[in-house]
Design brief:
Length: 557
C-alpha cells in the first residue's frame, strides 16, 4: 500500500478537499513532497480575519472565520531548524528559518484565499517582552530596557517584513481594514503596499511604542512619541482609503500633517465617545476617543493642538463642535414624567462628556486656529468659549451657534415660555473673535434680555432670536446698519410660543412710526410694514413681519 506522499495526485486532491485548514497545515509538515504538492493544489480557503503577532522569540499567525479560530506558532528550534506548533502538535523542520517558513505559509494562505471572500481585518501586532517582569525585578534602568526592546524587536521585524514583501506580490491582498499595533510606519508602509487600493477602506495605526516600559508614567515627552510616516501617505492604498484612525496622533504629527492642507475640523461628542475629524477634499482622517480610554478629552485636546500647530497658512473653511443625542429606543409616545426622566438622563450623560472636554480645550494655549467659520450644534456658548478663544480674530468671519437644547424630547416652538430657551452668551460677545467677525447665525435658542442688541449690531449679516425686544432696540439697529458701509442683511425674531400675550402688548407699527417720525419713509401692504431709512451713502429697508420678526436689508435704488 503506497504511503500518503506517494499517492496519485487525484487521490490527494480528494483528501485535501475533505480536510479543514488544520488538517491541511498538519499534512503540509509531514514531508517535503507533501509540502510542495499542497502548495500547488491547496483548495480555496475562506478567512475573514488574519492576525500576526510578532514576539521576540516567535511569530504567531491567527486565522479565523465564522466557524473556527486557528493559531499557528513559529519559532527558532534549539537545533538548526524551525519549530511549528499547530493543533497541539509541534513539528520540527530541519535547516529551515522560522521567519521564512512563516512568510511562505502566509503567502500560501493569501494566494488560496477564495476570490469571493474579502478579508475584513488584517491585524499586524508587535508584542512586549514576556520576561518583562523578571527584568523589572532585576532593577535595570528604564532607558536600558527601552533600548533592549527596540533593538531586539527591530532585529526581528526587519527580516520579517522583508520576507513578507518578497513572498507576497504588491496589491494582492483584498482586505477592508488594516490595523497595526506597535509597528513603526516604515514597516507598516511595506505591509500596506501588499493591499489592493480601493478595496482597503480603513487604516488604523495604534501606538508604535507599544512597549510596557515606554508606557510607564515616567515616559511622557511628546517628542519621545514623535514618529515619521516615511512617505506612507504617497501610496495609492493610503490615498484611496476612506478612514484613518489612531488613538494617539502624536505618532503621526511630524510627517502627515505638513502633507495635508486641511479645510475642516469637526469634533463630535456623544455619551460613549468623542470623535475628531480632520479633512480636505481628498482625505478624511477620523480619530475616535472612547469614554473607556484614560483621559480621552485630554488626548483629543493634545491632538487638536498639534493639528493647529502644523496647520498650513491657508485658513480652514470651518471648525465644528457637535453634541449628539443618545439614540434611545421608544415604544410609543412619552408622557411628561418619562420625558423628564429622559432629559435628566441626557443631561447627566452630556455633562460627563462635555465638562472634561471644555476643561481640556481651555488648557490649550499659545495656538491660533486659522479658520473662517466656527459652527456648533447642541453646544452651549460657555462650552464653545474655549474653542472660540483659539480662533484667530480677523480671520474668523462667521459664527454659527445652533440649538444648544438639542434633544428629540423638546422642540423650539412648543414651549409655553420662551424663557425655557433663553441661553446666556457667557460674555463671548466681549471677545475679539466675536467683535471682528462679520456674520452671525444663532438659531434654536433665545438671547436673554441682558445682552444688549449692540452686541450684534456690528455684524454685516445675521439671524438671531431674542427673548425681548423694544422699539428703542429696533431704532438703534436701524441707525447702526444704515451707517455701516458693507452691511448686507440682518433678521431678528422674538420666537413663537403658546402664550402670545407679551407680543400683543406692543403695537409695533404705531410705536415705530412715532420713533422714526420723519426720519423714515413708511409703507405697508396686506401682511408687511416697511420703513426706509436713509444716509448720504445708502438706503436701508426695515420690514416688520407680523407678529414678531424684523428684517433689515440694503435697499437697491
Amino acid at each position: 500500500m503506497p504511503s500518503l506522499p506517494n499517492m496519485p495526485a487525484l487521490v490527494l486532491n480528494r483528501i485535501l478537499n475533505d480536510c479543514d485548514i488544520r488538517a491541511i497545515f498538519s499534512l503540509r509538515k509531514v514531508s517535503r513532497d507533501l509540502y510542495a504538492f499542497i502548495d500547488e493544489v491547496i483548495p480555496c480557503i475562506h478567512f475573514t480575519y488574519i492576525q500576526i503577532e510578532v514576539r521576540i522569540h516567535d511569530i504567531r499567525l491567527i486565522l479565523s472565520n465564522d466557524q473556527a479560530i486557528i493559531t499557528i506558532r513559529y519559532q527558532h528550534s534549539d537545533g538548526n531548524g524551525c519549530a511549528v506548533e499547530f493543533n497541539d502538535t509541534k513539528h520540527i523542520l530541519d535547516k529551515e528559518n522560522f521567519i521564512e517558513i512563516f512568510a511562505k505559509d502566509l503567502s500560501l494562505i493569501l494566494k488560496h484565499q477564495s476570490p469571493k471572500t474579502v478579508l475584513e481585518v488584517f491585524s499586524f501586532q508587535c508584542w512586549d517582552h514576556e520576561d518583562w517582569y523578571e527584568r523589572q525585578r532585576g532593577q535595570r534602568s528604564w532607558d536600558c530596557l527601552s533600548v533592549i526592546d527596540n533593538d531586539e524587536t527591530e532585529c526581528l521585524m526587519k527580516p520579517l517584513v522583508g520576507q513578507i514583501s518578497e513572498k507576497i506580490a504588491e496589491q494582492q491582498v483584498k482586505c477592508r481594514a488594516l490595523e497595526t499595533y506597535g509597528i513603526f510606519p516604515r514597516h507598516t508602509k511595506s505591509i500596506l503596499k501588499l493591499f489592493r487600493p480601493g478595496t482597503l477602506k480603513h487604516i488604523k495605526i495604534y501606538d508604535p511604542h507599544r512597549i510596557r516600559i515606554e508606557n510607564n508614567e515616567g515616559y511622557t515627552s511628546d517628542e519621545d512619541y514623535s514618529v515619521e510616516l516615511d512617505g506612507i501617505y504617497d501610496l495609492e492604498q493610503w490615498k484611496q482609503a476612506e478612514e484613518l484612525m489612531s488613538p494617539d496622533l502624536r505618532n503621526l504629527i511630524d510627517d502627515v500633517i505638513p502633507a495635508i492642507h486641511l479645510t475642516r475640523i469637526k469634533i463630535e461628542v456623544d455619551a460613549k465617545a468623542m470623535c475628531l475629524t480632520v479633512a480636505n477634499p481628498q482625505e478624511n482622517i477620523i480619530i475616535k476617543y472612547e469614554k473607556s480610554m484614560e483621559n480621552p478629552s485630554k488626548t483629543l485636546a493634545n491632538d487638536l493642538e498639534l493639528f493647529i500647530k502644523f496647520q498650513k497658512s491657508q485658513p480652514l473653511t470651518i471648525v465644528k463642535l457637535e453634541w449628539r443625542d443618545s439614540d434611545y429606543e421608544q415604544e410609543g409616545p412619552l408622557d411628561d414624567n418619562a420625558k423628564e426622566l429622559m432629559l435628566e438622563m441626557e443631561c447627566n450623560e452630556r455633562q460627563s462628556m462635555m465638562d472634561p472636554l471644555v476643561d481640556a480645550l481651555s488648557e490649550i494655549s499659545g495656538s491660533a486656529l486659522n479658520v473662517k467659520i466656527l459652527e456648533t450644534l447642541g453646544v452651549f456658548p460657555w462650552e464653545v468659549k474655549p474653542l472660540l478663544k483659539l480662533c484667530r480674530p480677523g480671520t474668523l468671519n462667521c459664527i454659527r451657534l445652533f440649538s444648544p437644547h438639542k434633544s428629540k424630547f423638546v422642540t423650539f416652538d412648543c414651549s409655553d415660555d420662551p424663557e425655557d430657551y433663553s441661553v446666556d452668551l457667557d460674555e463671548i460677545q466681549e471677545m475679539e473673535q466675536w467683535k471682528q467677525a462679520k456674520e452671525l447665525n444663532m438659531l434654536g435658542f433665545c438671547v436673554p434680555p441682558q445682552v444688549h442688541v449692540g452686541s450684534y449690531a456690528h455684524f454685516l449679516k445675521g439671524t438671531v432670536f431674542v427673548r425681548k425686544l423694544t422699539v428703542d432696540d429696533i431704532f438703534y439697529l436701524a441707525q447702526t446698519f444704515v451707517e455701516s458701509p458693507n452691511f448686507d442683511f440682518f433678521t431678528i425674531t422674538i420666537p413663537r410660543c403658546k402664550n402670545y400675550s407679551e407680543l400683543s402688548e406692543v403695537d409695533w407699527v404705531t410705536e415705530l412710526n412715532k420713533k422714526f417720525e420723519t426720519s423714515a419713509e413708511a409703507s405697508q401692504d396686506s401682511d408687511n410694514h416697511d420703513w426706509v431709512i436713509r444716509s448720504p451713502e445708502r438706503a436701508l429697508r426695515l420690514r416688520y413681519y407680523t407678529p414678531n420678526t424684523f428684517n433689515f436689508t440694503v435697499k437697491k435704488e
